[in-house]
Amino acid sequence: PAERHELLQRLGGADMPLLYDKALEFALFRTYAVPSISATLARSGGFERDAAVRYDDTHLLLREMAENGGRGSERYAAASRRLNSIHAARAPHATGEEFAYVLSLFVLEPIRWARRYGWRPMSRSEQLANLYFWREVGEDMGIDERLLPDSLEEMERFNEGFEAERMRFAKSNVSTGEATMELLLSAYPRMLRPAVRACVVALLDDRLLLAMGYERPPVWLRRAVDGAMRARALLLRLLAPPRLGPVLRRTPEDGAPRAPCGALLPSFNVYRTKQGRYPYGAGYKIEELGDARPLS
């Protein structure tokens, strides 16, 4: 476990931090193309109220689990308990199969993105470390072990079968997806957002486009975006100096200074709320992340 944790820290914090993070963002976006999942999120109302808060709740909980010693650490345990409380309150009818599908994307999307657009593909050891980490998260969520494949090949088959059967168009996909798309675009100047949006859509496969209600982008745009991403990978491989330590750790290390109220201070913030502030710019407490109030 310690070696596995070190591998993932090196991968997501130093070797390909931006790519790994964007792969997980696209993994979450992909889950919204499953009507049963998007409908649950739409009922909770979190995305429509403020997608930035929802994003940070998820991002910080997952980072707490991944960056601070993994399974067996106090902060992993606290984040796992909070995640389970949120799911029990806000998604009481979600099935183990749906949760297992979400975790399968956290395993597979970074591998796929590294293979296509990374300066190098993930090694077999890194792939397996990613698989076993998210499998442990699933076990701690109470998912039936029979739904958690213990090989990458089985995970691919499960993921493909689930999407073939369950990924369909629904209005809830559109509302949840659009709220997330607007959040992603908010990081860019307003005049660039139409172009960035077109590039994001060009990265989506046909099954996902259909389920989200997007028109298929022209072939030339898909090729241009794909070529630009591969050119970035080549430049990183040839010109970027090696990174000697983590560069993208969001949660503070144990012993790092805290806010006066005792809250943990993130090392960086990502998206602003509709009011123009960062959701947890003043700090966060693991046990208060997310909304664990039962749906009315």
Report on the architecture of this protein:
The chain has 296 residues and is mostly helical. It is built from twelve helices and no strands. Helix 4 packs antiparallel against helix 5. The longest helix is centred in the N-terminal third of the chain and has 22 residues. The chain is globular, with a radius of gyration of 19 Å. The mean pLDDT is 92.
Quaternary structure annotation: single chain
Helix/strand/pairing class, anyone?
Answer: mainly alpha
- Which overall shape is indicated by the principal axes computed on the Cα atoms? globular
Low-confidence stretches: none
Q: C-alpha Rg, in Å?
A: 19 Å
How many strands appear in the DSSP assignment?
0
Instruction: Quote the beta fraction.
Output: under 5%
Largest sheet: none
Distance between the termini: 41 Å
Task: Itemize the secondary structure elements and their pairings.
Elements: H1 2-15, H2 17-31, H3 35-44, H4 46-67, H5 74-90, H6 96-117, H7 124-140, H8 152-166, H9 171-185, H10 193-202, H11 206-212, H12 219-239
Helix pairs in contact: 1-2, 1-7, 2-6, 3-9, 4-5, 4-9, 6-7, 6-8
Structural descriptors:
296 residues; mainly alpha; 12 helices
Can I get a quick summary?
The protein is 62% helix and 0% strand. With 296 residues, it is mainly α.
